[in-house]
């Protein structure tokens, strides 16, 4: 039997998943790669992965992709790791640098700018190192572990999940486990059991797999208090609402916004 290729987000929020997979599966049966969300999407789309932890905004773009796990990366309110950082209040922001690592967060900040903050700004696509350009009236969307290391380093910070909750009253779903391959039921059961094991052992997962200390929050506390992993009915409804708003926004984006490359 060929190894099942799994593309896993390399952020702290997915460490329990990684720990569970390492605990349950041998390297003879699965091959786990640690990637950015955008790379996870690309690997599933190109056939370089059989399973991926995929940003929800990208799932509709992947042919045959289906969500198959009851677990996700989500949040109820503050998430701490999807942030808009700025040195001026949101109403004074003229440019927003877009994190290149995930489409979902980019779509979310555009929705918030249009629906919640009601501002018109220039959205700027970026390359690695763009965080150094957050200055003046240029703000920056930063996600993942980098966002955790930048907490409290700017005059203003806006937690996108918290802003979404304020606007809609809903939780938010950032990524789900998806596949476009035929997986046996027994493998799916084992896979989800492995994820559950990791989720039930977050402290052990952090001790085993986290080797950095520049987070401005305790890693175990973050996993416990800021990330919600159950892909439940409420989150499914929230995801549908987000995807509908994204589609609506994309239809109007050319006339409402300008997007630039750095």
Q: How do the helices and strands line up, and which of them pair or pack?
A:
Elements: E1 4-9, H1 15-24, E2 30-35, H2 37-46, E3 51-55, E4 66-75, E5 82-86, E6 95-98, H3 103-116, E7 122-125, E8 138-143, H4 144-150, E9 156-159, H5 160-168, E10 172-179, H6 185-199, H7 202-209, H8 219-225, E11 228-230, H9 233-256, E12 258-261
Walk me through this protein's architecture:
The protein has 262 residues and is an alpha/beta fold. Helices cover 40% and strands 25% of the residues. It contains nine helices and twelve strands. The chain has helices spanning 15-24, 37-46, 103-116, 144-150, 160-168, 185-199, 202-209, 219-225, 233-256, and strands at residues 4-9, 30-35, 51-55, 66-75, 82-86, 95-98, 122-125, 138-143, 156-159, 172-179, 228-230, 258-261. The strands form two sheets. The chain has a six-stranded mixed sheet, with helices on both faces. Helix 1 (15-24) packs across helix 6, helix 3 crosses helix 5 (160-168) and helix 3 packs across helix 9 (233-256). The longest helix has 24 residues, at 233-256.
Sheet with the most strands, sense and barrel status = 6 strands, mixed
Question: What is the H-and-E element order?
Answer: EHEHEEEEHEEHEHEHHHEHE
How much β-strand is present in the residues?
Answer: 15-25%
The helix content is 25-40%
The class by helix and strand makeup works out as: alpha/beta
Oligomer classification:
single chain
Give the low-confidence spans. Answer: none
The number of distinct helices, counting runs of at least 4 residues, comes to 9
Q: What is the rounded Rg?
A: 18 Å
Mean pLDDT figure? 95
